[in-house]
Amino acid sequence: MPIFEDTNSATDNNGPPTDHPQNGENCLKPNGKIEVEHVISKKLQLKRRAEFLKSDLMRQFDSHVNDFMDSLIEESASLEPAPVSAVFSPPLSDKEKNKLGCFRPPHGQGKQFVNRRSLLDELFEVNHIRTIYHMFIALLILFILSTLVVDFLDEGRLVLDFDLLVYAFGQLPLVICTWICMFLSVLLVPYTLFNLWSQSQTGSYSYPRLCSVLFGFMYLMYQVLVLGLLPTYIVVINNLPPASRFIIILEQIRLIMKAHSFVRENVPKVLAWTKDKRSPNPQVPQMSHYIYFLFAPTLIYRDKYPRNPVIRWGYVATKFLQVLGSLFYAYYVFVRLCIPQFRSVRLQFFDLRAMVLCVFNSILPGVLVLFLGFFAFLHCWLNAFAEMLCFADRMFYKDWWNSTSFANYYRTWNVVVHDWLYYYVYRDFLWMSQKRFRAGAMLFVFTVSAVVHEYILAVCFGFFYPVLFCLFMCFGMMFNFILHDQRKGPIWNIIMWTSLFLGQGVIICLYSQEWYAQSYCPLKEPSFFELLKPRSWSCERGSIAD
């Protein structure tokens, strides 16, 4: 930094000026005065440069710290105690080591659960972020007011009936009975089969391998027939409405994943016991641990999880109220933004202009439904159950909204499901292929996720229209490689959000058109291929008045 002469010393002396050349930067006037404007401009330039360097340095530091902490949390389970740790913390006692070991995955592999809060709970403590939450509440109030005003002008009275919600959640007694049967079967069958199989490995049975094949076949048949086909049959044969179908099918998928995690995590323990036999009997999980896992907001089984000491019942009530508020929010989004648009739409053969307008008009309700689904389920619902169960690891999602790549978005949007896919699909695929087909493992994960998502929508909506499957397998795979983790900077975050908005518009538009086409153009005796063909492609109907 250049050093400037003190202007006071130059003006106080009456003698002739003394030249102090400094690489030609300071221009002197005949009277010996330094050009003050030139000095100020140079200082301002240096100040701006310093501020830019400071912000850039802080941004890089924050990014590196976040990456370091994430990698530290994910990989700490596989790290052995090092002498460096003693520099930062005192050595742990034997009791503390045993307590910490309960939360570590077996054999130093897998997910480690730690005590941490949900990200939105931390962000809502900031006034600026909480104001955004208040803006969404204000938007809900406007939706309610607009609906009441329109109903009053049309009907001459205030219409407060929620006919759409009543229809969507119809036949709730049947839904509750079906869920109870599914839960009891998952509670008894996998645990009993695992206990019997573990006893067959102790040497009391003559053919342990044959027993393994037999119990494995019985477990597979239970997963496919009882948990797989029976709930779907009940949903279809009783013609349940959409929301009731979603409850049963989503619980079906959740319980299948839970049962697989329980078996997948405990079978290696028994197999390891058969080799060393350090204890008289293999380690079998307690029934209380299994019941806790079935209700816990995670799909990765552990005998013990980090727990909080108390239950904040006010927090639980707040989260359930927010779930209820999000449900009514979604109701008003469909009533005000979706139903008026698609109920009076002209169903005809493909029209490019009409399709483009439909997609762009569906972006706003699609984005609102996306936000509401994320907030209601991944934040409020899971946090409410976590609080009631004192479950301390609340990382159900990460900062997916800051993603600059779709690869990072897939990892951070739904951490609960991502962990299950990563440990039981991706890593097991690599283990079976001896780590030779990483691209194949990624493709297999995308295929499983796309098939399950499309299965849920097909059963819940009552028709087969593989829009989401195509978006997953085509654009999802393509963006996963194009918008990869090497893409940094705000422009890539903008591209990610733009693609996400367009995808939501396409989903809402095409599925809504197919829903009304199924109503407008029913098939009397449809063949199998006619059931697979989207009805909106062949249904032609004029403008519907009502």
Automatic annotation (TrEMBL):
The keyword ATP-binding does not apply. It catalyses: (9Z)-hexadecenoyl-CoA + cholesterol = cholesteryl (9Z)-hexadecenoate + CoA; octadecanoyl-CoA + cholesterol = cholesteryl octadecanoate + CoA; (9Z,12Z)-octadecadienoyl-CoA + cholesterol = cholesteryl (9Z,12Z)-octadecadienoate + CoA; (11Z)-octadecenoyl-CoA + cholesterol = cholesteryl (11Z)-octadecenoate + CoA. InterPro entries: MBOAT_fam (IPR004299), Oat_ACAT_DAG_ARE (IPR014371). The chain crosses the membrane at residues 132-153, 165-189, 210-236, 313-334, 354-378, 437-457, 463-482, 494-513. Residues 1-29 are annotated as: Disordered. Signal peptide: none annotated. One of its GO terms (molecular function) is cholesterol binding. Keywords: Acyltransferase, Disulfide bond, Endoplasmic reticulum, Membrane, Phosphoprotein, Transferase, Transmembrane, Transmembrane helix. GO terms for biological process: cholesterol efflux; cholesterol metabolic process. This is O-acyltransferase. It comes from Mugilogobius chulae (yellowstripe goby). The lineage of its organism: Eukaryota, Metazoa, Chordata, Craniata, Vertebrata.
